[in-house]
Design the sequence.
């Protein structure tokens, strides 16, 4: 028997359930109690792509130190799914704890002798008080939260408060839920010995909020001036469109009930992006939200946006691919697809939020960039950000901020005789002026051409005109470098020849990994890229280091490929750290991979020296 793990406000709990069993609300309640007690948590819902019946897990990182990424390993497993029992038990760290429903006996072979086994007859407890079969299923989940509350030291009043808030307007559900909670708590108090894991009230949460990235991005779109959304349902982006509708109903509806927005659930992704292009051409701030398979279908219209220069925003909530892949697993695997979407020579800006707060900020910024640069902007979310609740900084908005509609000529400009050529570079930044349809009855009208055109939007197949237009688009690309979000650099406390580049949801795990590596004497300067095209700072960072680890969550090193392709970086200077099993990357994975690669490099140097 291993020594039982002992820790306060620093451990990992994992719930193993069956999808559709009603466990999500109970597991969420567990996380929110900790937050109300001032203890930071990082929560991850690992769920299947079906409605009911398959395994689902909910993992909670309890960390007073504030580490919000997945750590790796489980200290306390709540095993409620017989189908996954063996794998769940195997995942527990030596000295860890297993809680299970002991209403039916299990053979000794189902347990491990290096962990603490905690049985609670949950089914029997609930059956003694509730008759309805569905209620028995649902309340069994609340019952195990009661057991955990007693074992870990929850404040019961916080649980009561949360249940009251959860069922506000449904008062008849409050008491049954609390009764189920009390059944588990009282059983643990009377029959179960204390364990080494405890929680204690602290003040480390502060004013941070607990919110999903898709909700944040949807609110960002509202604040960014979006008035039109066309979408087709696809996991994991659907909740973004639903969130946009919810916030528009609240914030874009007149007193008389008139909607100041339009949302269309189209027949497919192709129709969705087509509607967005039409709305963008007409002057609306428009977007769609989708995932990798949807981007594949939208390619032709995205190329049309690039060449005809029509503003649009696409929120790509990335999931596991290829093909249908793993619809409910996370990856960073759409980078090359989005960067060079469509046939021919194209390049599209991408924004990489690292948390829901940035999802809100970039969700708003994307519309300014789309309008100014007259192109499609990709906001590259990931399932781990989009569909998970994160503890994140409160959203902030400057009420004096004005929407940047870009270079738009109005009626007065045209009346005053301003020369207008739709694709002319008037002031040297390669961004042309445009008009909204109907601006003037006789001046400024133009066709939006997806076919070859000259500076005045006239159809042409003259090579010199085509080359001139394509080179202007490249110059516009250069202008974008200073407008997308700048990278964030974290300097190591000691001089080091090694660096690391990463993006998106890798951020919390990377922060923890950097601190742990420093504790081992391994120092890395770190850069989190937040926008594409990459600024010159990114390539200067690479030049300043002998080798740079590129940490990303895909198989084919897509971020590395972009760095090599766009900056002419020698591939040997970039060392890939790749995680792509569909679960969020962990600090332990990063530490292990980088440490092994550094050791291998040192061994090679010794061999060469000998």
Sequence:
């Amino acid at each position: 028997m291993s020594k039982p793990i002992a820790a306060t406000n620093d451990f990992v709990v994992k719930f193993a359930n069956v999808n559709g069993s009603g466990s999500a609300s109970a597991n969420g309640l567990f996380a929110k109690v900790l937050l109300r007690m001032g203890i930071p948590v990082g929560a991850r819902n690992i769920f299947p792509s079906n409605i009911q019946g398959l395994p689902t897990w909910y993992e909670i990182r309890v960390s007073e130190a504030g580490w919000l990424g997945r750590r790796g390993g489980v200290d306390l497993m709540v095993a409620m799914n017989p189908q996954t029992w063996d794998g769940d038990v195997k995942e527990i760290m030596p000295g860890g704890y297993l809680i299970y429903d002991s209403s039916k006996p299990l053979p000794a072979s189902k347990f491990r002798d290096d962990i603490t086994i905690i049985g609670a007859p949950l089914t029997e407890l609930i059956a003694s008080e509730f008759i309805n079969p569905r209620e028995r299923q649902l309340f069994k989940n609340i019952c195990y939260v009661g057991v955990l509350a007693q074992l870990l030291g929850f404040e019961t009043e916080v649980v009561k408060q949360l249940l009251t808030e959860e069922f506000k307007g449904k008062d008849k559900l409050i008491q049954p839920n609390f009764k189920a909670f009390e059944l588990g708590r009282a059983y643990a108090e009377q029959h179960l010995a204390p364990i080494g894991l405890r929680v204690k009230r602290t003040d480390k949460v502060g004013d941070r909020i607990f919110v999903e990235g898709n909700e944040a991005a949807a609110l960002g779109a509202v604040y960014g001036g979006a008035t039109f959304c066309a979408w087709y349902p696809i996991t994991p982006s659907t909740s973004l469109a639903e969130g946009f509708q919810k916030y528009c109903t609240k914030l874009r509806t007149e007193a008389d009930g008139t909607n100041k927005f339009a949302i269309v659930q189209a027949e497919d992704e192709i129709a969705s992006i087509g509607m967005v292009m039409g709305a963008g051409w007409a002057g609306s701030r428009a977007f769609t939200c989708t995932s990798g398979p949807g981007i594949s279908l939208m390619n032709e219209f995205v190329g049309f946006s690039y060449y005809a220069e029509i503003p649009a925003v696409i929120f790509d909530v990335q999931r596991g691919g290829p093909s249908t892949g793993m619809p409910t697993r996370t990856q960073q695997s759409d980078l090359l697809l989005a960067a060079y979407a469509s046939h021919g020579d194209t390049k599209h800006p991408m924004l990489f939020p690292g948390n829901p707060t940035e999802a809100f900020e970039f969700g708003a910024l994307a519309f300014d960039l789309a309008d100014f640069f007259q192109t499609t902007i990709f906001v590259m979310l990931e399932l781990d950000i989009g569909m998970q609740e994160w503890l994140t900084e409160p959203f902030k908005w400057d009420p004096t901020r004005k929407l940047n509609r870009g270079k738009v000529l109005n009626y007065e400009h045209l009346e005053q005789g301003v020369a207008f050529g739709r694709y002319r570079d008037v002031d040297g930044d390669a961004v042309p002026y445009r008009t909204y349809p109907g601006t003037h009855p006789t001046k400024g009208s133009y066709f939006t051409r997806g076919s070859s055109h000259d500076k005045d939007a006239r159809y042409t197949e003259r090579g010199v005109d085509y080359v001139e237009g394509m080179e202007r688009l490249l110059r516009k690309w250069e202008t974008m470098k200073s407008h997308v979000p700048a990278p964030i650099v974290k300097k190591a406390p000691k001089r080091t020849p090694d660096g690391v580049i990463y993006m998106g949801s890798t951020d919390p795990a990377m922060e923890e990994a950097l601190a742990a590596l420093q504790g081992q004497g391994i120092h890395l300067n770190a850069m989190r890229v937040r926008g594409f095209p990459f600024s010159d700072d990114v390539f200067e960072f690479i030049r300043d280091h002998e080798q740079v680890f590129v940490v990303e969550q895909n198989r084919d090193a897509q971020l590395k490929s972009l760095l090599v392709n766009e900056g002419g970086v020698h591939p040997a200077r970039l060392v890939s750290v790749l995680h792509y099993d569909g679960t969020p990357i962990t600090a332990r994975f990063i530490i292990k991979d980088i440490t092994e690669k550094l050791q291998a490099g040192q061994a090679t140097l010794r061999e060469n020296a000998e």
Observations:
- Residues 408-480 form one domain.
- Residues 587-609 form the longest helix (23 residues).
- The chain has a mean pLDDT of 95.
- The chain has four domains: 7-198, 210-392, 408-480, 488-609.
